């Protein structure tokens, strides 16, 4: 199989790397994190101008309708730079839900605004009791005439405090964890009855807890068929997992390179410590883990458009397992080999480790997905 990038994909990678190398030093990132929304609005506009926010959006909606590979390239570059902007929250999750569940009018209104960077979306789905079970939705939506009334609380909504609109899930019928009965609603974030509490996450990103208290939404705010939203949610989460896997690979590659450079520079007993064989072995272990993660991230990317949901879920679960394991090994070794400096907030290797740790927990950690794989017969079930 040919794993070489096309000329257009190489140009995209070089363009994104050039922008981030110029604009996203570690010191600049710390300044961006202090901005009111926790990221740079100016860089967000640059991403839109480069077409990064509309990679999967159709041409007639202002996007470029590329393959998942372009998303992988962009996400990996973002991982290397520790980007703070809401790419996954808006372009992957929000844009994906609209592409798969939105009607023509909804897509015509919202997708161009995502592509041009003028609107930020957030996906409010996780709840305190749900853990990693996507079907566990306790928030409710009930009909009141032709409108819907939404009640409930969502937690860890990625960039929910800066979103202009929130796509929220709510249960229309059935018991908690029933696959049927879940709806999706596109709600203005400033609607009466919505309260948001934003906070920084461990990796320097932003999230919010959102409470819906008798929030009234019009019938045109419903995405897709009411009560049949779970397959769409699962598909979009799979896309997000693939993008996050690529981002984690970028962060792991940066940690490995930082560690190699440090071992070449740091001297002990009159020689660089990189000459010590035991430390060389540790760096090789890091490289092996990195390449294993890279292979699984590429496989996840190739499976994003797979129509067989069970097969797609198995691959995404396997990718999450490997990303989680590789991220832990590489992060622990990177911090240990740096010594005391690896533990400081002023040095970036620890920030990379925090990001890959956060990615491991998003949409299910390695242990959760390993259990799911085992119950399903593994990545390649026996015939």
Describe the structure in your own words.
It contains 11 helices and 10 strands. It is α+β, with helices and mostly antiparallel strands and 383 residues long. The chain is globular and about 80 Å long. The protein starts with 6 loop residues before the first helix and ends in an 8-residue tail after the last helix. It is 50% helix and 16% strand. The chain has 3 domains: 7-119, Acyl-CoA dehydrogenase/oxidase, N-terminal domain (Butyryl-Coa Dehydrogenase, subunit A, domain 1, Orthogonal Bundle); 122-227, Butyryl-CoA Dehydrogenase, subunit A, domain 2; 231-375, Up-down Bundle (Butyryl-CoA Dehydrogenase, subunit A, domain 3), CATH 1.20.140. The model has no long low-confidence stretch (mean pLDDT 95). It has helices spanning 7-23, 26-33, 41-49, 68-81, 87-101, 104-115, 230-265, 277-302, 309-338, 349-361, 366-375; strands at 121-124, 140-144, 147-158, 165-171, 182-188, 194-200, 206-217, 222-223, 267-268, 271-272. A hairpin with a 2-residue loop joins strand 2 (140-144) and strand 3 (147-158).
Sum up the structure in keywords.
alpha+beta; globular; 10 strands; 3 domains; 383 residues; 16% strand; Butyryl-CoA Dehydrogenase, subunit A, domain 2; Butyryl-Coa Dehydrogenase, subunit A, domain 1; Butyryl-CoA Dehydrogenase, subunit A, domain 3; 11 helices
- Unreliable segments of 5+ consecutive residues: none
CATH architecture grouping of the largest domain:
Up-down Bundle
Number of helices: 11
Spatial gap, N to C terminus: 24 Å
Structural class call reads alpha+beta
Mean pLDDT: 95
Number of domains: 3
């Amino acid at each position: 199989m040919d794993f070489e990038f096309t000329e257009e994909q190489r140009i995209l990678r070089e363009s994104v790397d050039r922008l981030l190398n110029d604009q996203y030093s570690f010191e600049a990132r710390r300044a961006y994190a202090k901005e009111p929304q926790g990221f740079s609005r100016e860089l967000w506009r640059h991403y839109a101008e480069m077409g990064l926010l509309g990679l999967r959006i159709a041409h007639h909606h202002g996007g470029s309708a590329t393959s998942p590979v372009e998303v992988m390239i962009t996400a990996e570059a973002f991982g290397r730079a520790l980007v703070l902007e809401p790419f996954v929250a808006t372009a992957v999750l929000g844009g994906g839900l609209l592409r798969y569940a939105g009607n023509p009018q909804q897509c015509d209104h919202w997708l161009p605004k995502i592509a041009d960077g003028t609107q930020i979306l957030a996906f409010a789905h996780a709840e305190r009791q749900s853990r990693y079970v996507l079907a566990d939705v306790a928030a409710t939506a009930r009909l009141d005439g032709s409108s819907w009334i939404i009640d409930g609380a969502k937690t860890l909504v990625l960039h929910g405090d800066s979103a202009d609109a929130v796509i929220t899930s709510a249960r229309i019928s059935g018991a908690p964890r029933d696959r049927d009965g879940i709806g999706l609603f596109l709600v203005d974030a400033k609607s009466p009855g919505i309260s948001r509490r934003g906070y920084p996450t461990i990796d320097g990103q932003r999230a919010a807890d959102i409470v819906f208290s008798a929030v009234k939404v019009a019938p045109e705010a419903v995405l897709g068929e009411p009560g049949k939203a779970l397959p769409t949610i699962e598909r979009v989460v799979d896309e997000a997992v693939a993008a996050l896997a690529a981002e984690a690979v970028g962060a792991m590659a940066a940690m490995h390179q930082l560690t190699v450079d440090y071992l070449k520079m740091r001297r002990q007993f009159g020689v660089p410590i990189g000459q010590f064989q035991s430390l060389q072995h540790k760096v090789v272990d890091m490289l092996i883990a990195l390449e294993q993660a890279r292979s699984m991230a590429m496989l996840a990317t190739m499976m994003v458009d797979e129509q067989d949901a069970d097969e797609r879920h198995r691959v995404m679960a396997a990718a999450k397992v490997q990303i989680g394991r590789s991220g832990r090994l590489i992060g622990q070794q990177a911090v240990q080999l740096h010594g005391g400096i690896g533990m400081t907030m002023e040095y970036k290797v620890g920030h990379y480790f925090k990001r890959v740790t956060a990615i491991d927990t998003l949409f299910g950690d390695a242990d959760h997905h390993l259990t799911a794989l085992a119950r399903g017969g593994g990545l390649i079930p026996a015939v």
